[in-house]
Design goal:
141 residues, alpha+beta, four-stranded antiparallel beta sheet, 6 strands, Transposase
């Protein structure tokens, strides 16, 4: 899967939006951490209470689905990511998927792999990823 292609919109047309969201702890991760702590004879962590967080976002007026990405331009570009799964032996693109620039590839990877396996009819034997996909939750799956 590769995240190099970007489509961008006019970065001059932007507005500032304040978004309020509820932040809660991932129970699955907390459970794994507590199991490890108990295995080593330590007291488990208590779950944290939900809290409200406000986030200031800059949005495009021409394309509200585009997200501001500052990876390749310090001022930011409104962009999307193009994720691809490629058969490297035969050089075929098996799957292409476009997301907002702020969506990390590891969040959509397993769903896209399952889709390719369903379409092709067999399980993938090897998957090669770049360092951007290094994630503990992804490694468990």
């Amino acid at each position: 899967m590769k995240q190099s292609e970007k489509a961008n919109t006019n970065k001059q047309k932007r507005i500032q939006v304040i978004q309020t969201m509820v932040v809660k702890e991932d129970e699955g991760v907390l459970q794994l951490v507590n199991e490890k702590r108990q295995h080593h004879g330590k007291k488990p962590f208590a779950p944290k209470a939900e809290k409200l967080a406000t986030k200031r976002m800059i949005c495009s007026t021409t394309d509200p689905d585009a997200e501001l990405s500052v990876k390749h331009d310090p001022r930011g570009l409104f962009a999307f990511h193009d994720h691809r799964i490629v058969d490297t032996l035969h050089h075929f693109i098996l799957d292409a998927y476009v997301t907002a620039a702020t969506v990390p590839g590891h969040r959509i990877l397993m769903g896209r792999i399952e889709r390719v396996e369903h379409q092709v009819g067999y399980s993938l034997k090897e998957i090669v990823l770049d360092a951007g996909y290094d994630n503990a939750r992804l490694a468990r799956e």
